[in-house]
């Protein structure tokens, strides 16, 4: 079916509106130019009137009479003098024009001498990279004009470059990483160190845009973020890199910030995370922030290899399954995590085969937070135990399907000691603290678009989720509340987010139940050795051990529906002693 043409008012309306706006803008500019003298005189008259009122208000009351007489005398003289009123009006208009002039100093049309010198230095530094000997019309040459290659320049208050557009010749290999890295390093060094620069390469137009990034705020603490279940906030980033904002509380004020949101669960393509940093860079702060967010909807298990007690505030809290700092505890906890992952997999598979939805306990989020797992590797090798990293393979490989999320934090110097399972299955990556571009590329899988700086505050770094772009990252301040160096505001913010401590299920301890067992059949000689010293005690121990075997009597099952073994009758409750056993055997 042929499409009917739109009415002319709809097809040409946008063009007419744009043309009307352009005409209105041109008319307004022309009116402003024509009426500019009148606007200036009006502004001056208003300023003169304001000055007269202030002068009259400042004059004492006893002097206002003579002042009025003097003003009246001047007016009379002006009226009597030939051409006096005309001269008075001309004088008043001149004074108003002088008072109404624009007193703001005109903005400089171009860079000043110091800025021109900076641009000339940048131009000369780029000559060896953007020029060749056989170029007939080179853009870059020693002693050339920088105005032809720097069409846009902006400077900050200190006189350093804030934004610069650079034209480069078409033969420059801008598609290769190494030449681009050399140019970025040169520009960052010549434009001023200690700042982060963003480089945007326009390969089609042969233009490079250099921009100085503002520092990310570090004055926000841990808090409840407005996120959906399965979403976790790693930190905040630049507004130009993400399409979403979150309300952030800063004291009594609230502001919208662009977050780096990490999605976990069955639908996630990056279900596990690896955080790497230098000592003091904030990896433990990141893990505490993730733990506080995970406790809103799930349970966590913390394994700390550093042994510094960074997560003692989580011990005994609701939803915290354990905080292990020793090798034995770490192995036991990770073995349980393996069995729990396998149990969830079996239960979910059985439910799918039966056509039923997965059980709720297989969808309940379980977070395994491991800080510095390589610290246990040497201890495990020394004691002959299994490496705890090997136990992470099952949760890392199969945890996404059953709601198990693994977060591993390690330092740069121990990155080579991480297992293959951790490297392969942690597609969400975070690098904190100062690092070279090579180190960042080894962790993130791609170099950042900004130049790393030598000094970073705690929690500052880069994040990359899967194969997405590299984001600048600032982790919310989540310090250890038990640390004396923590500020009161940050300590209270963390304590407010901690869940209450878990209470024991049984408030009272039940006393042991005494049981009297009388046997109608002699005790087996295999259980009681009469020749051995302390045979009576050995007989009681043998009975206790035999209670776990088939057909044995469980002393705590007296009065229940427990089967009576052959030749044994439970008669009354009372302590079981060696004398009773020997009497029963006689």
Automatic annotation (TrEMBL):
SUPFAM superfamilies: P-loop containing nucleoside triphosphate hydrolases (SSF52540). Residues 549-568 are annotated as: Disordered. Keywords: ATP-binding, Membrane, Nucleotide-binding, Transmembrane, Transmembrane helix. Residues 257-441 form the FtsK domain. ATP binds at residues 277-284. PROSITE patterns: FTSK (PS50901). The chain crosses the membrane at residues 67-98. This is FtsK domain-containing protein.
């Amino acid at each position: 079916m042929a499409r009917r043409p739109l009415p002319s008012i709809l097809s040409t309306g946008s063009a007419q509106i744009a043309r009307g706006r352009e005409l209105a803008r041109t008319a307004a500019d022309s009116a402003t130019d024509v009426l500019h003298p009148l606007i200036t005189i009006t502004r001056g008259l208003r300023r003169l009137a304001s000055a007269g009122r202030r002068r009259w208000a400042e004059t004492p009351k006893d002097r206002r009479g003579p002042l009025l007489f003097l003003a009246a005398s001047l007016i009379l003289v002006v009226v009597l003098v030939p051409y006096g009123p005309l001269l008075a009006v001309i004088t008043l208009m001149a004074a108003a024009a002088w008072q109404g002039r624009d007193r703001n100093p005109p903005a400089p049309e171009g860079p000043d001498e110091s800025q021109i010198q900076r641009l000339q230095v940048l131009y000369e530094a780029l000559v060896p990279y953007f020029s060749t000997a056989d170029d007939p019309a080179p853009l870059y040459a020693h002693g050339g004009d920088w105005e032809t290659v720097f069409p846009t320049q902006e400077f900050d208050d200190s006189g350093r470059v804030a934004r610069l557009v650079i034209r480069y010749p078409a033969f420059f290999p801008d598609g290769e990483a190494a030449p681009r890295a050399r140019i970025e390093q040169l520009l960052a060094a010549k434009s001023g160190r200690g700042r982060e620069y963003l480089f945007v390469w326009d390969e089609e137009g042969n233009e490079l845009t250099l921009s100085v990034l503002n520092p990310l705020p570090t004055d926000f603490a841990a808090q409840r973020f407005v996120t959906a279940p399965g979403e976790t906030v790693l930190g905040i980033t630049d507004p130009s890199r993400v399409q979403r904002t979150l309300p952030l509380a800063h004291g009594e004020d609230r502001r919208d910030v662009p977050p780096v949101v990490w999605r976990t669960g069955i639908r996630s393509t990056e279900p596990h995370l690896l955080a790497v940093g230098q000592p003091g860079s904030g990896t433990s702060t990141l893990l505490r922030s993730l733990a506080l967010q995970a406790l809103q909807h799930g349970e966590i298990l913390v394994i700390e290899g550093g042994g510094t007690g960074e997560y003692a505030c989580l011990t005994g809290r609701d939803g915290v399954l354990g905080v292990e700092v020793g090798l034995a505890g770490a192995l036991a906890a990770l073995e349980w995590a393996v069995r729990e992952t396998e149990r969830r997999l079996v239960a979910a598979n059985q439910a799918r085969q039966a056509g039923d939805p997965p059980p709720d306990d297989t969808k309940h989020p379980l977070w395994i937070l491991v800080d510095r797992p390589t610290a246990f590797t040497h201890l495990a090798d020394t004691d002959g135990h299994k490496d705890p990293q090997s136990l992470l393979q099952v949760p890392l490989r199969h945890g996404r399907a059953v709601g198990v999320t693994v977060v591993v934090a390690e330092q740069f110097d121990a990155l080579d000691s991480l297992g293959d399972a951790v490297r392969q299955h942690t597609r969400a990556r975070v690098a904190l603290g100062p690092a070279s571009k090579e180190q960042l590329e080894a962790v993130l899988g791609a170099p950042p678009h900004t130049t790393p700086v030598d000094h970073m505050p705690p929690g500052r770094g880069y994040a990359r989720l899967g194969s997405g772009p590299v984001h600048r990252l600032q982790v919310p301040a989540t310090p250890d509340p038990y640390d004396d160096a923590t500020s009161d505001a940050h300590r209270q913010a963390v304590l407010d987010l901690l869940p209450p401590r878990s209470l024991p299920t049984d408030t009272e301890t039940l006393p042991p139940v005494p049981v009297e067992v009388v046997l109608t059949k002699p005790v087996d000689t295999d259980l009681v050795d009469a020749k051995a010293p302390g045979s009576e005690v050995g007989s009681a121990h043998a009975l206790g051990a035999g209670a776990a075997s088939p057909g044995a009597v469980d002393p705590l099952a007296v009065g229940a529906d427990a089967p009576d073994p052959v030749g044994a009758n439970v008669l009354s409750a009372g302590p079981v002693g060696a004398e009773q056993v020997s009497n029963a055997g006689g």
